[in-house]
Write a structure and sequence with these properties.
Layout lengths: L27 H5 L8 H8 L1 H10 L5 H10 L4 H10 L6 H13 L5 H10 L4 H12 L8 H17 L5 H7 L3 H5 L12 H11 L5 H10 L4 H10 L24 H11 L1 H24 L19 E3 L5 E3 H13 L17 H5 L4 H19 L4 E3 L6 E3 L6 E3 L8 E3 L19 H17 L1 E2 L6 E2 L7 E3 L5 E3 L13 E2 L8 E2 L4 H23 L9 H4 L17 H9 L3 H5 L17
Parallel strand pairs: 11-12
Antiparallel strand pairs: 1-2, 3-4, 5-6, 7-8, 9-10
Helix pairs in contact: 6-7, 9-15, 12-13, 20-21, 21-23
């Protein structure tokens, strides 16, 4: 066989276009040109991968920020795969971008510092676009992540670590003092139930021989209660229904679960036996200490609750040496601060005050810091210093000359700038009347103002504004006047205005769950406005996400101090609306979702 030899004319050659090489993203310039960064896509990706981004930043503090975002995106937020890749090669921050970021901090003081790092890298070679971006931010045409959001995330990451990789029983019990009673209850932990897919994934991993259909059915029958479902699967002798162990899902969920309450429940299930054994051991040790102290006559008595079997470590003394247990001191201080009383007097009416140093070891950090801030604010106010002004968003105070138009807050948890004229966020270089607001912005502002109006109480005598965090609903203002926190009316010094054990007409509850008085009442006020706009001007609601502006629902209190409640009537009283209108709001978050009918 002979092979024909063909000659190809140059005119017969086909031009094959050059295929551009795949970028290796080993330089800052190549990272800036990442396709998904177009049209501010880098903002979206930073928000999407924030938690794993911050975790990796702890191990690689000098890494180029946008390089890290790209790696998280390429590896679909898989932390382990990204770490393996970074061990091969990582791009560090450039000096030029770092210097630019330092300049940006002075201009946008309340911004998330990592966000400013990213801005510095994105615009390091394009100052014209940088100036345009800064102009949009300073004129309020563009939103940006705030410093407080960053600090909150960093705190959350530390808590998440303590519940996962750095778990310690002592730390866990400080966060969740009664885990068995709380998590084993089928009614108390309702706010944990929105992580349905994560719960299914967790249970399918713990019970690999159980069909997913059975896991989902059980989870639904227990109203998405993870602990109850886990216990039912663990205690069922017929649990193993699959002949072969289920293979791990190829679709691994790499999204970060950052809900602290959900992670507490998972931590409880993972370490349940250790936690129960630790608690039982602590109880045994405590009983032995009490018996030993009793035998030598060293038990103490609280002068408030009259518990006469207290160890010396369980009591504290006022300056006049009156003895009180830690529980009574904590509850008493919560009630006093909730009632806006800053003189934390001894319960024995000896006119002495509890020492702040002593209280720091008893109270949780949040309450203690609030007391310190309130006392400082009161002392500053009483000093009547000329030129004193305050941040509109926290208790920070500063002395300024009349020429200064902006209050720059130095509180690390706030760091906002306030216009001294209109008391809104700074809109420099524009004047107050030059800030145009679109119809949608006006609607959002109207909703938020109504929510604020419902949340904040004002003394009818001195016009002092306040919000209660704890304690009963009989409020004593710093001016001495007394009012009801629910109906906002002035009341006499007695408790005739209130009921406790049984709901009574024309009276207000003495103790309430702050979720209802604050979050639910605020939500009801907002939804009433939304419903009215839906009928009259629905086009104004196109870009308003009500869930993003509603207050966070906190853990429902199981305290014995909660009075009997008619929730609809209570909410109606707080927001000053008709009870029937509140009943029609079926989408309020405190209401249980309707049960679906079983399929036949």
């Amino acid at each position: 066989m002979t092979t024909a030899k063909m000659e190809i004319e140059s005119s017969d050659l086909i031009d094959v276009p050059d295929v551009p090489p795949v970028p290796d993203y080993k330089s800052l310039n190549s990272c800036i040109n990442y396709p998904k960064f177009l049209d501010f896509g880098w903002e979206v990706l930073y928000k999407k991968y924030t938690y794993n981004f911050l975790r990796l930043l702890e191990d690689y503090p000098d890494i180029c920020r946008i390089f890290l975002i790209i790696k998280l995106d390429l590896f679909q937020n898989n932390l382990n795969n990204v770490k393996a890749e970074l061990n091969k090669f990582k791009l560090n921050q450039s000096d030029a971008a770092t210097q630019l970021t330092k300049n940006l901090v002075g201009i946008i003081q309340d911004a998330d510092p990592i966000f400013l790092d990213i801005v510095g890298e994105i615009y390091v070679f394009n100052h014209e676009h940088l100036y345009e971006y800064i102009e949009k931010i300073t004129s309020k045409k563009k939103c940006y992540p705030k410093f407080k959001e960053h600090t909150d995330r960093v705190k959350n990451i530390k808590i998440i670590k303590s519940l996962t990789t750095d778990f310690k029983i002592e730390d866990f019990l400080r966060m969740c003092p009664n885990p068995v009673d709380y998590f084993e209850s089928s009614t108390q932990n309702t706010e944990l139930r929105r992580w349905y897919n994560e719960s299914v994934t967790y249970l399918s991993t713990k019970f690999p021989y159980v069909a997913l259909s059975k896991i989902r059915t059980l989870l639904y029958s227990f109203r998405n209660n993870l602990t109850s479902t886990y216990n039912a699967l663990a205690n069922d002798p017929k649990t193993n229904t699959l002949k072969r162990k289920r293979k791990p899902s190829s679709e691994v969920l790499h999204e970060v679960v950052d809900d602290i309450e959900y992670l507490k429940e998972v931590a409880y299930l993972e370490h349940k036996d250790e936690i129960i054994n630790y608690i039982e051991n602590q109880k045994t040790v405590y009983k032995l200490k009490v018996e030993e102290a009793k035998s030598v006559g060293q038990l103490c008595t609280c002068e408030c609750c009259y518990n006469d079997e207290l160890l010396v470590s369980e009591i504290r003394l006022c300056p006049s040496r009156h003895l009180f247990c830690l529980s009574c001191i904590k509850k008493g201080i919560e009630v006093a601060v909730g009632g806006n009383q800053l003189r934390l007097k001894c319960f024995a009416n000896c006119d002495e005050e509890f020492n702040l140093v002593m209280l720091k070891d008893i109270l949780d950090e949040k309450l203690y810091q609030r007391i310190v801030r309130l006392k400082q604010a009161q002392e500053i106010k009483e000093a009547e210093i000329e030129g004193l002004d305050t941040c509109a968003f926290c208790d920070y105070s500063v002395i300024l000359s009349p020429s200064h138009k902006i209050v720059s807050c130095l509180n690390p948890e706030c760091k906002k700038e306030t216009c001294r004229e209109c008391r809104e966020e700074s809109h420099f270089p524009y004047k107050c009347d030059q800030i145009e607001k679109s119809a949608e912005v006006k609607v959002r502002t109207m909703i938020e103002n109504k929510m604020t109006e419902v949340l904040i109480r004002t003394c009818s005598f001195c016009n002092r504004k306040f919000v209660k965090e704890d304690g009963c609903n009989k409020m004593t203002c710093s001016c001495g006047k007394i009012m009801c926190y629910i109906c906002r009316k002035p009341i006499p010094p007695t408790y005739e205005h209130f009921y406790h054990d049984k709901v009574q007409e024309n009276k207000c509850p003495l103790y309430t769950d702050e979720n209802i008085v604050h979050a639910t009442a605020v939500e009801a006020a907002a939804r009433l406005i939304i419903n009215e706009l839906k009928e009259k001007q629905p086009e104004l609601l196109r870009h308003i996400d009500i869930d993003k502006i509603l207050p966070v629902m906190k853990k429902t209190s199981s305290s014995k101090y909660i009075s009997a409640l008619n929730v609809n009537r209570l909410v109606a009283t707080v927001i000053g609306q008709n009870e029937d209108d509140v009943k029609k709001l079926t989408d309020l978050r405190f209401r249980e979702p309707p049960q679906k009918k079983a399929r036949r």
